[in-house]
Protein 1
Amino acid sequence: MTDFIATLLNDPIVTTVLLAFVPLVFILVYALVVLYGEMKMAAHIQNRLAYMENGWHGTLQPFADMLKLLQKEDIIPAAADKFFFMLAPYLVFVGTYASFAVLPFSSGFIGSDIDLGLFYLVAASSLVVVGLLMSGWASNNKWSLFGALRSAAQIVSYEIPGVLAILGVVMVTGTLNMQTMTQMQDGGIQNWLILGGNFPLGQKLALIPVMVLLFVIYLLSSMAEVNRTPFDLPEAESELVQGYNTEYSGMKFAIFYLAEYANLFLVSAVVVVMFFGGWTSPFGSFMSGPVWSAFWFVAKGMFFVFFNVWLRWTLPRLRVDQLMYVSWKVLTPFAMAAIVAVGFIMVM
Amino acid sequence: MSEPTLETVTTSTGRRLRTEEMVVNMGPQHPSTHGVLRLEVVLDGEIVVDVIPHLGYLHRCFEKHCEHMTNYQQVVPYVDRMDYVAAMTNEHAYVVAAEKLLKIEVPERVHYIRIIMAELQRIASHLIAIGTFGIDMGAFTPFLYYFRDRERILDLFEMTCGARLLYNYMWIGGLSHDLPPQFTEKAKEFCTDFKRTMKEVNDLLNYNEIFIKRTANVGVLPKDLAVNYACSGPMLRGSGVDWDLRRDDPYTLYDRFEWNVITGNGEMGSVGDVWDRNMVRQREMAESVRIIEQALASLPEGDVQKAVPKRIRPVPGDAYGRVEGPRGELGFYIVAEDSVTPYRLKARAPAFVNLSVINEISKGAMLADLVAIVGSIDIVLGEVDR
């Protein structure tokens, strides 16, 4: 697709800019869908109907919400650190958006096909923590500061089991390139890494339990990284009002939200690439090709987004010390053990 | 307040920084203070060092107003507005006190209907208590499950007296309306359906692993402390004290029914923790359903306004009437002079008394636990501040 557009436009700069907009367009459309979807799912879990007024079953409501946020007054507290207060939401969004560059959306499209893909993704999404901490500090509000410190502690803690899980997968695939990683799993559901990947039978069977373990570890730590229930302590509204974004209104608040939803898809996409075959079709060559593969990628990603939403409206929230306990005393040791196991299996 | 621990930290650049405790205001505008309670919280990191509740944001001079009504009956709509999620109970307590003062014997049917209303109101109030407690813990869904059932109770009340929240239903010596014809059937239907919801919420919230982790061994209120602070209701029973006015001081006709007093037993942690208090409420609802079913089955006939006095002018004296409300012992002390209005009316608000223990049980807890503790006390600020 990159080559096609390049030949069509015959200008490398325009091509790059145009390609850079593809994930942005995706994020905006996806955010509207998820905004609507989450409200509807929450409502049906809770025996309600949610939006029913605007459009068929309230389908126009996300647009109305967006318009409302656009025209709201953008309040900056008098005692806030103005520069950092304004910078923070964009930093959070940039961290997430930058990570989209290495997501293989389809067999024909990946923003940047670099060999350090997963490494870059982990590094770029760490920028989010800086933004959150900045927003909490610059707001000059004690609750925001609490939320920011909690989120910094939480994200840093959960990055360790998360990255260890990624490491385990990388030891299996032997590459950090997300496109190559996906191509390795092509050929049907039996080649997905959660089912042992495309390896000889003995190795495959030995890999399955380890991959399931790595999957659970990564899923839990990714939920913590995107601040979703049961790990939504940084914005625990019953404790911290709204956490780091208490003082934000209007578009800045909207950008925080957009970043949160984008981040949700990002971690779901990483789960899909690492364990569920990325854009590959579960039926081998049936329903495959650049367009179908984009469909599979988004569909699989949306499934994990749905999973997160489902948990959010079901479970209560953990406490700070319990959160740390899960990360340091449960997930990290298991991730270490899984890495050792992967090492043995791969040498086998 | 305890002395702040002043520790000095030297940074890498040689600057000496002092660490100290942080004072935050939880409320009056805070999602989990259940109204306009303001807690001044001294925090050491996430650990609560001290809590000072500041009250009075909803003070409406209730007691003074009662002295300036045109008669005793006019106090009833006003007591509705004290504990606005359990208005029937407030009316019940007031009419019990007033009838004691006036020495009125009310017909049996009135007693039965009052019991049905009071128990329905207890369920409605506990539904809010448990639901909002779930929200405090981050679980939003059980709240709406319970609100769906609370709506049905409010529908029953609306059917009976036309109002959904503030009823003015119980009069001194009687009731404003008799039960409508379909009431018994609808109430029985509700009782049957409600048992199912209780099971649902038990599965979803009360026996949820995360919920238990969050609530067990948190905010433990020992037996003697609960008694010393004059706690009552689920607060007291959660700490294992077997005390319920419905059984131990049977006003109305509670001694005719079969039911159990629920006490906390430290099933998940220690006796008197937040989980116990919440569970006492949950189990009490099942007992209330039992009482309602029995009362509906044996409802006597009669005229509900037979004993209503035409003009109320008591002989000077005083009377204290109390009932077991959803939050605990709700009492009204009325001093009468030779007049049509009370000389003095004092309300013993259980939420106010229960709230006083918060400082004692939340020291050393974490900030998230403080939210759990406030939620488990189940305060209604309309009653605390009056």
Note: Residues 79-347 of chain A form one domain.
Protein 2
Amino acid sequence: MNYENYHLEDFLQDEEFKRWVQNPDTESEIFWKNWLISHPNQRETILKARELLLALDFEATVPDEEDYKEVLLNILKGEASTSMAQKQVGARPNYFANLHTMITRLAGVIIILIATLVVYIQTREQPAPLIQAPVKYITKENPRGQKSQISLPDGTVLWLNSESRLTYPEKFTARQRIVELKGEAFFEVAKEHTRPFVVQMNNLHVVALGTSFNISAFPEDQNVAVSLVSGKVLVKENISTKDLHKPHFEDVVLAPGEKLLYDLQDFSIRKSYYDFKSDIVWKDGTIYFENASFREVKNKLERWFNVKIILKNGVGQQWNYSGEFQRESLDRILQRIGFVEGFEFQQRDHEVTIIYEN
Amino acid sequence: MTNPDLHKNLKIEVYAPEKSSDERPDAFASKGDLEIWRNFKRGNESAFTFIYRQYFKKLFTFSSQFIQDKELIKDCIQDLFIELRKNRKNLSDTTSIKLYLFKSIKRKVIVCQKRLQTNSLNIQKYFGHDFKVTLSAEHLMINRQLEEQKLRQLNMALKKLTKRQGEVIYYYFYENMDYGQVMEMMDLKNIKSARNLVYKALKVLKSEVDPQ
């Protein structure tokens, strides 16, 4: 193929190109990634064509888990009992017997008529919006000292840590479920084979189908960490023509138990294994330290209890603290750490001073 | 803060990570369509479940292009599968289950739509989404290759697409069918007509994104 002279629409019409964007396999990944490297002048066209292909979406009605189960059950029963022919055309006696559903349907019809009218009047008066189906976004944000559990419209449940923010659309589109995360959250993604769940962060995004995983992406930390508990996720770097100078990494697939660390300074990545206790138990209200330095302890407690921790003397102290606290007060935690590390402390409002008496 | 039940569920998942939730344990995942289909015809119920799970949502979303009402769509899909199961022994072979199901459901949905239109209750809820193409605002949060100005133009251009052009984009790009399958879905004479239809739909976009 003479892809060098291809324009945007030529790529879109090319079945091989389309196959790579929508159903990449090892061969097409190797071919196109290498082709991109050897033809930098076509990079922008290709990225644009790719983005267009991926962003194409349709207005649609999407079924939920209940629909899926209900239809399956009826099929297995083998009765075409609710078939539309009977419902709409044939006036069967037992249909009218159920007066309640009749009234509900009638009410539904009237509501839809009114809604249609309202929508018609509104759209007639307003100029066309930028995106055809304007999406409303919801933002949930926790200050220091607060954690929360959030249920998303698709049934996904997540625990949002302190000082973290999640933005998601009021309704996901037919093609994918995308949320934006700052800070830390543990996700239990509702299983949907055909609609990936994407967590978007500053530099990366994580693609999942139905899994549970933890993401820690605090801008002040050195790393973004993605820890996979079950299922499978794909970690992808956000590509943009603007940061071509930045080193890029290939997509990473994580297996259960694995953890990906993305360094925010040099953009390098490292795979390791997560520790369930230190990485994930936060969502159940447990604070866990393993060989933690003073800085780690300080950061975690500050976020957790909304306090500021100041070290008065003892700058050179090397902490190597391990311990586990289940729903305990800051006072109690500091007493226990202080016993091991040998310090006293004072708390005034939101400020804790740690004092070493040598 | 924590719901105790959820907590319990989570524990189970956490301690049995080897049972990964989205990997398909099916024996069918790696098999070709013809083999799966023949298994289904022979009465293999795992083959049926596999097919149902693979296509339920796709068929639903596709049907909603013709009729918006959820209950009616469910009825159509339900009837389709009941018929397939009843006549399974006599079904013809296929190398693309997707094409087979899409063609069947389209026929069914159109019959249903026509019947409703001749009915006195001809109201909005029986209209479909009519293959209206949009650019997913959500998706564009990720890559940001196209500037806002371009997007605005593109979305205007997409509105100019006819229903037929929208439909062709649905098969070719959204459902990732090849030209041969597009031809079958749209009852076209040959593959060349399918290519032409895709080309015409793209011309509308091209003039906005890449004017040269």
Note: Chain A has four domains: 3-55, 65-125, 137-277, 285-355.
Protein 3
Amino acid sequence: MSFDVPDERRYLESHEWALETDGVVRVGISDFAQDELGDVVFVELPDEGDDLEQGTEFGVVESIKAVSDLYAPVGGEVVAINADLFDAPELVNEDPFGEGWMLEIEADDPDELEVLLTAEEYEDQIA
Amino acid sequence: MPLQTPPLRGIHDERGAKFTEFGGWDMPVEFDSIQTEHAAVREDVGIFDVSHMGQIHVTGPDATELMQRLTSNDVSRLSVGDSQYAAITDEDGIVIDDTVVYRLPDDDETPQESHGDGDAADGEPTYLFVPNAGTDEATHERWLSYRNEWDLEATVDNRTDEYAMFAVQGPNAVDLVASITADPVGDLERFEAQYATIDGVDCWTARTGYTGEDGFELIVPWADAAEIWTALDCQPCGLGARDTLRIEAGLLLAGQDFDHEDNPRTPYEAGIGFTVALETEFVGRDALAAVDAAGVDERLVGFQLIDRGVPRHGYDITTTESRVIGTVTSGTMSPTLEKPIGLGYVPVEYAEPGTTLQVVVRGQSKKARVETTPFIDTV
């Protein structure tokens, strides 16, 4: 079984991905993570305006069989959440790097991303 | 301790199954996705490998008495080809395990020898019962020790490693099995069983299951397991879907909805009082007669979460004033209803359907409502 690991993103060991565009970091979970969880049935996200620190919990994703905490890849203010996931949590399974995104953080310090895993390093972790 | 492996571990692996440890066995938990497998069973047909279930064979002049005195139901009512659901209780009436007891043809020795053509007039009564995964050795010991204590003439064999077990479940399950055997399995009533010959192999075929759907459970000689599995060509399903299906059907999981050590319950509390035949003599009978007369303080209920969230084993159940009154024993997002549902014990005054409760999900109180079980229409 092989999993998508898009090159341009950074990853956490806990399987979140981060994609920065002009200081705003979009966050979701990896293809590997969605496959491990199985059918995602529930996603809990913070509110827009909440402040997160790098590495802290920002929410929960639940599949039928498991509960998994979600960790912030970067510190900053939550500027958007993907409210579509409340009614269609299966988007996380269907399109984890696209429509299954979870939130956007306006990074206090985009350099924090540098400590995260590269695609290559993450691929080694899940191999 | 190394995990026990079902006979078809390799076949499941090739099919792309994910595995999990369950009751000391390395079992397939998911083949495609729980929702896909669940839907196949509700709408069409699916097959489960449940070879982790135990099989204990009991035969001899006193076999009926031994079974009667160690299970809660009335074994004397079983004719050849009947089966019944029963609890195995201790002296205090606490459920140790739940099981299905099958009455085999008299003197039947399958799979070790070929079985006879049915009810030999002067044969010895013979039973096969199915304790839960990982409990077969302790159960076998229990049967032997009581047999010796009561000086009964019966042979008790643990044949867990000789039989595979498959469950074929769903509205089209009967047609599927009937299409590959000449035996009239479609004529069986619920909880009736017979041998059906599939690809030349005699399979003990019972109209029982753990999903709320129609279908069969087949007990198959381990050596022929691959052949039979392949012949029963339909959606393979893992333990994940087995769990969501049985929760929707309001069926208990041993070790979770009751546990002899961690969550000791009588059959009455667990909602399986219908398995208790007080007119028979069995271990725990007197204690249960007292419980039956006095009534229970708590019992297992089904509930649905009204707020968003998923109830899980071990979460607190509280009153609307947040006083803790019970614990969730099983919970899931119901694939059929697309609603979060669960089972748990509450005091009887909170057990009426429609009662509003709360379930504490990771520190947050979520509103819940007591529901009648099963949650779905079942056979």
Note: Residues 10-121 of chain A form a domain with the OB fold (Dihydrolipoamide Acetyltransferase, E2P) fold (CATH 2.40.50.100).
